[in-house]
Write a structure and sequence with these properties.
Length: 158
């Protein structure tokens, strides 16, 4: 698994996802006040994990470093998916869950899959094409969603 991308990149990606999730849950009114602080604590845990990884880099092999960095990223992705499911099921916010899935859940899963394929050096060209085409389809879909429902309200229509 020798590549130019270090395994700690997945740890940074997970930390970024937890920080973004903390900001999103802080802005949304669907969650309790303590939820963003839990996500910030998870991001701090990622930084502590990174410091420990730096100290024990000689002792741990690349497979060990990859396994706990990927586990942290998988935990971040599971939390993003869990927030989406929470919006869908408990709050009965179908529209909010669809927008959250299109704007946050799907792109984070796609970006993570893309970087995982680069790390493993398998199918990176195919996933690059899939990433670009999915981003274009996602952008057009969001434009139609916003254009139909919100556009009429913004310009004074019914």
């Amino acid at each position: 698994m020798a590549t130019d991308l270090l395994p700690e990149f997945f740890l940074f990606l997970g930390v970024d996802f937890f920080v973004a999730l903390a900001l999103i849950t802080c802005v949304m009114d669907h969650f309790r006040r303590t939820i963003p602080y839990l996500y910030e604590a998870a991001a701090i845990f990622g930084y502590v994990n990174l410091l420990m990884s730096r100290e024990f880099m000689a002792d741990f092999g690349e497979y060990m470093r990859f396994s706990y960095c990927f586990l942290y990223l998988a935990l971040a992705l599971a939390n993003i998916t869990g927030v989406n499911v929470h919006l869908l099921i408990s709050k009965k916010s179908w529209g909010g869950a669809k927008v959250f899935a299109c704007c946050i859940t799907f792109p984070t899963l796609l970006i993570s899959t893309f970087f995982f394929s680069i790390y493993g050096k398998d199918m990176s060209q195919i996933l690059t094409a899939a990433l670009l085409s999915s981003a274009m389809v996602l952008g057009v879909g969001i434009a139609f969603l916003v254009g139909r429902e919100k556009g009429m309200n913004w310009i004074g229509g019914r």
